[in-house]
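Hi Y.,

Following your request, here is the sequence exactly as I used it, all 275 residues.
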Amino acid sequence: MPLARITRPCTMKRTILLFIPVLIGTPMIAGGAGQVRFASAASNSPTISASLFRPEATTPRPALVLLHPCSGLLPFMNDWAHWLQSEGYVALVVDSFSAPGRATNVCRVGRNPTMREVAANAFGALRFLRAQPFVDPQRVGVMGWSYGGGASPAASRVEYRRLADGPGATESKGFQAAVAFYPPCQLAGADTEIPLLMLLGAADDWTRPERCISVGERLQRDKRPVRLVVYPGAPHGFDQPGPPRTSLGHHIAYDGSATADARNQVRQFLAHVFR
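Below is the corresponding structure, written out as tokens. Let me know if you'd prefer a different format.
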């Protein structure tokens, strides 16, 4: 699958530190989901909660760390986790608001946690997953939406890769893939080295796609493995089922055609990267 080009589907039909992992709560059984806790890679190492989804498998599987929007965990993320599970991936849905003293919504303020802290949480999740016998430690990616989507391009950068390892590490190795749904791209950078897929809505009035397109095109000119998919007419939150709604003056609506294509894009992208 070619990565270094922009895809603009035109047929879209709009439809309105020694790290010790800790396991708690529901037992993690193959094919089910369980609650886990792990230390963030942030400097103060807060403990983060997450839901772990495992496929039925007898061999270690590739895994994805899932990062939520600024409003926190939403039901559509579990839909994606179940879908990834059915595709044969381990999915870890991270709750970045579960650390002590964190907000439950950062849509107005963009801090506590910041997107940088969310990226650090993702690297803590990466450390956790690498320690699990049912995960292939060489095939772990990150996948985020909106605010969490902004942390995904950050996690693809060399600058952040040091967070993948504890103190004293001589060689740092981060995620192998990153997927970002309608992200703000202020943390994206020219030092992206891993395959990055960005899925954008052309009608997004919250995290407008222009900056991500500009960053992506520059990365492509530098021969970075970046793929952009822009959905004409698709708004912010195009993969979130439910009636159209307004949040902080921004339009959010489900687009079934864009969502179906996005799943196909993710399927092909992950198959290519983790082949």
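The mean pLDDT is 86.

Thanks again,
Q.
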